[in-house]
UniProtKB/TrEMBL annotation:
Similarity field: Belongs to the polyribonucleotide nucleotidyltransferase family.
Region ranges (Disordered): 697-734
Entry GO terms, CC: cytosol
Keyword Magnesium in annotation: yes
Enzyme class, spelled out: transferase
A Gene Ontology BP annotation from the UniProt entry: RNA processing
Biased composition (Basic residues): 723-734
GO molecular function (one): polyribonucleotide nucleotidyltransferase activity
Protein name: Polyribonucleotide nucleotidyltransferase
Catalytic activities: RNA(n+1) + phosphate = RNA(n) + a ribonucleoside 5'-diphosphate
Positions with biased composition (Basic and acidic residues): 711-722
Length: 734
């Protein structure tokens, strides 16, 4: 007989109910739950091997989040019409869950664990990423897999000045703060998000509200686990231990590790020294030592190195490269190092270096970001590349991994806060190539990206910089906050967090916390130290380039934007696109027209400034309504016995009667006008019956003295006067 499903529910606030259920779907997994809010349903499963793989010495956790397009009644747009590899948004959600879950497992647990989270039903207003970690943690909670604690995640957004837990999709579009926060009952675990220059104290308030909301979700998971009857966790094989060997390693290596740590050396020199010491240690064990013993000695050596370097920083306030705790490494930066990109910058901070380029494109270059719920186009793209030579390694090039996607996303979200709005027609692609790395290449990307955007002439109002921070703490209450951490310090730390922003506030945050009991006072201190480091870097950036260049580079596409009435869109495009194609062909431009409400936004692009001007004038002529009394620069098209037909606006012609050419009476126009002449004319009238434009040249000339006043009656139209000029029909409605 099938078992009955078990469920618990809780209120997110505002009558929004969330239900967690287990025992109905995917029952052969070690843990399986569904999380439902509205029509949104996530299925989370977790399976762990009972034994680690032979020789395994690290924790192999994999977390994959995937959206089924059927959840929203859609068919994928790929060639194969099926879900393929994870998209970048799915990778980013997977990382949010992975970073929160990973610290929950025991340090000596090396069994493979796979967490799969699938969106099986989509709701237009419910954002699934804020529920993904809740689903994963609940699946672990109802399993016997040995996790230490239960966690959850929530989104906190500030909308119209109010902090909101898990806002709807439409509410989030109006937010000026957007953070996803993970926590256990007692401790914060992970923070990631963006804001429009919020203050440090605003972030602290968001963290406090998030923690309160998370505690409610943890209580619901505990209730579900109790209903399921889970009372304990499975046992697992523990790694071998050898206390005597540990003492031998400590006696041999302790003082030598301390000496290397205090050597104030560069990354590779220090790494080589630590490696040489490790090799010397293994050699000292003798040829008769077993491979198992050598491997264990290496592990004890690395653990000892981790402990001694932390103690050095905490007790002596000395860092591996000799800096003060709050000191930023030496900075070097330049803009325009590359001649052909539309914008470029080289940013170096210590042993971390980013070469960043900016490319300006048309709206046709926009990026399609597709998810199950919707498809959006974005005009701001940032790609981050981390080649193996940046760390002096040899690795196969397999395209961007999850780390590259995550670091690029943090930089993109930070710089996006300063990007111009929809009125800026360019599509902008920023590419950061990391040439050297020893600590926070993502923050170097933010700085180099800001410099390159200004170099490209993108009208960003302020620079954005970023700094990576670290925290080392000990049970006796001692702690050290480190500014601009090295790669080694990242590995040593209990918390690493990256903060980006302008002089006026925070634009982006990415934070991973590995220590229990972090107080909000320590968090405030760390954020303030990060602010000072950020400002120090910003000062140097403003010295390099203080504001965006007034114009794009000569070889970059020029752009003009024109807003027209909706009724003129068809006239600019023409039948079967003939008009817009002719404009593009004649002027060498690319023209994009987008209907926005009751208006049309016309964007004109070309590397040739003259071509852009000609196209702009052409389109203005099409949409302009001739006004009586206005003076126009006209071109003589044809000569007739009774006058000349002139084009006074693009595709609009009128008759310049022979009597309006000159104050002097003319029998014909021989020697006065010829085809192709450019003359100034004034629109003096419009025939309401025929729609013909009446033009005068003489009215713009001085009237000869003694000439009698003109008779108001017009002369009879000569034979042939019914000629209708091209484009001279009834003007469009204004």
């Amino acid at each position: 007989m099938l078992s009955q499903p078990l469920s618990v529910s809780f209120d997110l606030g505002g009558g929004r109910e969330v239900t967690i259920e287990t025992g109905k779907l995917a029952r052969q997994a070690d843990g399986s739950v569904t999380v439902k809010q509205g029509n949104n349903i996530l299925l989370a499963t977790v399976v762990a091997n009972k034994e680690p793989r032979e020789g395994q010495d690290f924790f192999p956790l994999s977390v994959d989040y995937q959206e089924k397009f059927a959840s929203a009644g859609r068919i994928p747009g790929s060639f194969f019409k099926r879900e393929g590899r994870l998209s970048d948004p799915e990778v980013l959600i997977s990382r949010l869950v992975d970073r929160a879950l990973r610290p929950l497992f025991p340090e000596d647990y090396f069994c493979d664990v796979q967490v799969l989270i699938t969106l099986v039903s989509s709701d237009e207003e419910v954002l699934p990423d804020a529920l993904a970690c809740l689903a994963a943690s609940a699946a672990l909670a109802v399993s016997d897999i040995p996790v230490k604690e239960i966690i959850s995640e929530v989104r906190i957004a500030r909308i119209d000045g109010q902090l909101v837990v898990n806002p709807s999709r439409s509410e989030l579009a109006k937010a000026d703060m957007d953070f996803i926060i993970a926590a256990t009952e007692k401790n914060l675990m992970m923070v990631e998000g963006e804001s429009k220059q919020c203050k440090e104290e605003d972030l602290v308030k968001a963290l406090e509200l998030a923690h309160d909301a998370i505690r409610v979700q943890i209580k619901a998971q505990e209730e579900l686990r109790a209903k399921k009857g889970v009372t304990g966790k499975r046992d697992y094989p523990k790694p071998d231990q050898n206390e005597a060997l540990k003492e031998v390693v400590a006696a041999f290596a302790s003082e030598k590790i301390k000496a290397i740590s205090r050597g104030n050396t560069a990354k590779h020199e220090r790494s080589d020294a630590f490696k040489a010491l490790k090799d010397e240690l293994v050699k000292s064990l003798g040829e008769e030592a077993e491979d198992k013993t050598k491997k264990l000695a290496k592990k004890y050596y690395e653990d000892l190195q981790w402990e001694l370097v932390r103690d050095m920083i905490l007790d002596d306030r000395i860092r591996l490269d000799g800096r003060q705790l709050d000191q930023v490494r030496p900075l070097a930066m330049e803009v325009d190092p590359l001649p052909t990109p539309h914008g470029s910058a080289l940013f170096t901070r210590g042993e971390t270096q980013s070469l960043t380029t900016v490319t300006l494109g048309t709206p046709l270059d926009e990026l399609l970001v597709e998810s199950a719920a919707k498809s959006d186009y974005t005009k701001f793209i940032l790609h981050y590349n981390f080649p193996p030579f940046s760390t002096g390694e040899v690795k196969p090039m397999r395209g961007p991994g999850r780390r590259e996607v995550g670091h690029g996303n943090l930089a993109m979200r930070s710089l996006k806060q300063m990007m111009p709005g929809s009125e800026y027609a360019y599509t902008v692609r920023v590419v950061s190539d990391i040439l050297e790395s020893n600590g926070s290449s993502s923050m170097a990307t933010v700085c180099a990206g800001s410099l390159a955007l200004m170099d490209a002439g993108v009208p960003v109002p302020k620079h954005v910089s970023g700094v990576a921070m670290g925290l080392i703490s000990r049970g006796d209450g001692k702690y050290a906050i480190l500014t601009d951490i090295l790669g080694d310090e990242d590995h040593l730390g209990d918390m690493d967090f990256k903060v980006t922003g302008t002089r006026d506030g925070i634009c982006g945050v990415q934070m991973d916390i590995k220590v229990d009991g972090l107080s909000m006072d320590v968090m405030r201190e760390a954020l303030e130290q990060a602010r000072k480091g950020r400002l120090h870097i910003l000062d140097a950036m403003y010295e390099c380039i203080a504001e965006a260049r007034p114009e794009v580079k000569p070889h970059a596409p020029r752009m003009e934007k024109l807003v027209i009435d909706k009724e003129f869109i068809g006239a600019v495009i023409g039948p079967q696109g003939k008009v817009i194609q002719e404009i593009q062909k004649e002027t060498g431009t690319t023209i994009n027209i987008e209907e926005v409400g009751n208006f049309g936004e016309v964007s004109i692009f070309s590397a040739n400034k003259d071509g852009v001007s000609r196209a702009l004038t052409w389109i203005k002529g099409i949409v302009a309504v001739p006004e009586v009394g206005e003076v126009y620069e006209a071109k003589v098209k044809t000569i007739q016995p009774y006058g000349a037909f002139v084009e006074f606006m693009p595709k609009k012609e009128g008759l310049l009667h022979i009597s309006e050419v000159s104050w002097k009476r003319l029998e014909n126009l021989d020697g006065v006008l010829k085809e192709g002449d450019m003359i100034k004319v004034k629109l003096i009238g419009l025939d309401q019956k025929t729609g013909k434009f009446k033009l005068s040249r003489k009215i713009l000339m001085p009237k000869p003295e003694g000439m009698p006043a003109e008779n108001n009656e017009r002369p009879e139209r000569p034979e042939g006067g019914n000629h209708r000029p091209h484009g001279g029909g009834r003007p469009p409605r204004s």
